[in-house]
Amino acid sequence: MTGPSAAGGRAETAGVITGAFRRVTGPHGSVRFTDQAPASPETRPARAARMLAVAHALADMLTRESAPSRGELAKALDMSEARLSQLLDLILLAPDIQEQLLFLEVAPGRDPIPERALRHVVRALDWREQRRRFARLRESGGRGTRSRPAGAPPSEAALPARRRPAIAARSRPRGCRSAAARPPG
Question: By percentage, how much of the chain surpasses pLDDT 90?
């Protein structure tokens, strides 16, 4: 298509552009098209890595001479003492596991190892057992270390044995005597 342009009387030629183009939105909503490949998503430290770093900072804070108690620190941070203990427990992980976590970077989205799943790893006191549990956690993609598939009912062996309630063992409430149990008189 050739024709005079409104500015300067020059002729413009329109042609067909072929290739793969990608729409890019600018900072103020402007739209442009580019033939460059999309940039890889920026990585960030895993949430568990950030929580481990916070745990180390809190532990350092608690070891100072003028340190607050755990209760005071939890109150100052607006968290429960139980949550503070969960964070501080991350320090009990084997050093090599801590190193792997601190250098773990993930793309935006779901973290591969949720902090909650690490609590199962921390419960093991032996570092060899922690390493075994952590390896299973990494293999499962952070979805837990259960051997049964998600949503499947637990096996009968996993269920606790049912016991008769203690109150059902008594035929009458304490302190209550039947007429037959009363002394004659």
Answer: 39
In a domain, 152, yes or no: no
pTM of the predicted model over 0.90: no
Cβ contacts of 10 within 8 Å, gap of 6 or more: 4
Exposed/middle/buried for 87, CB within 10 Å: 0-12, 13-18, 19+?
A: buried
Does residue 127 lie in a domain region? Answer: yes
Distance CA 76, CA 13 (A): 69
Of 3-7, 50-54, 140-144, which range is least confident?
Answer: 3-7
Contact 33, 23 (CB under 8 A): yes
pLDDT tens track for 79-94: 999 999 999 999 999 9
Tally of domains in the chain:
1
Instruction: Count Cβ neighbours within 10 Å for each residue of 40-77 and write b for 16 or more, e otherwise.
Output: eeeeebbebbebbeebbebeeeeeeeeeeeeeebbeee
What pLDDT, in 10s, does the model give residues 16-32? 767 777 777 777 778 88
Q: Could you list the residue range(s) of the whole structural domain that residue 62 is in? A: 44-139
